[in-house]
Amino acid sequence: MLDKIVSADTTLAEFSHIFDSEETCSKALFTAKWPEGFRCPRCGYSHAYTIISRRLPLYECRDCRHQTSLISNTVIEGSRTSLMKWFLAFFLIARTDQGTNAVELSSILGVTYKTAWLILTKIRFVMSQADEQAPLSGIVQINSAFYGRPYNPTVLRHPQEQPLLVGSSVNQQGESIYIKMKKISVAHMRDKSVLRSGTEAFYEQHIDNDDTTHVTCVTARFSFTRFKGLLQTAKKASKWINDTFHGLGSKHLQGYLDEFCYRLNLTLTKSPIFHHLTSLCANSPSITYAKLISQKL
Ligand SMILES: [Zn+2]
């Protein structure tokens, strides 16, 4: 339903006109959470009583009597922000090649910067989690790259340069079908060279060893065999991060790279991003503020 209503061409005004009430958003969230109709999270039964005595409906399973709310086990759980604002955030972050930042989001949603930042960070967290569940497979191509200073020809790494590995599953025609961009820990670097331990760590964490036929990894910067498409993608990611967030330190970089790849991968498979994001957020448990700030993003 959502992919029919919201497309890549939908404007902010059109979107706000469609999702104009808590009720509309509540229905859309229900469909995203339970596309086949209500399903009890405890026993799997498909019928429930709806209790409407609060801000959002509560569902009581007709079999085991377990009560569940519309937002439990979603990214919205624990938030006092309205569904309309959350849906608007989904829409803004789903915009191809654009996304949004906390300053813009707080102004459009009419919430504090902290609330906007938290919404974005929670959404980014579920994107990163989803990416962890999708290792590269089949034919895999990897190239090292740098995020940070636009041009630094020396062999020594500038402190603001973040080494990355950009990996892709490719089809028989050599076209990328799924891309990941991951920071390389400085422990795996010697000046600007990636140590073998760095590529091994990437293989370990991001490649499905049982389902991979061929891996080619290029870490020499001026090699003739380097994957120019992947380097181009890393450049685009750097530009988007610089334009949208005006550059940033290493702490949050991985979350931004994952967000970039999330939209890119859906674009590669021509999947509707808003629809996918809403479904992902409706089926991924939230993370608390305390956990968010204590973990490495
Ligand atoms: Zn039940």
UniProtKB/TrEMBL annotation:
UniProt organism field: Paenibacillus eucommiae
Domain Transposase zinc-ribbon: 21-67
InterPro entries reported for this sequence: Transposase_Zn_ribbon
Domain of life, per lineage: Bacteria
Protein name, entry field: Transposase-like protein
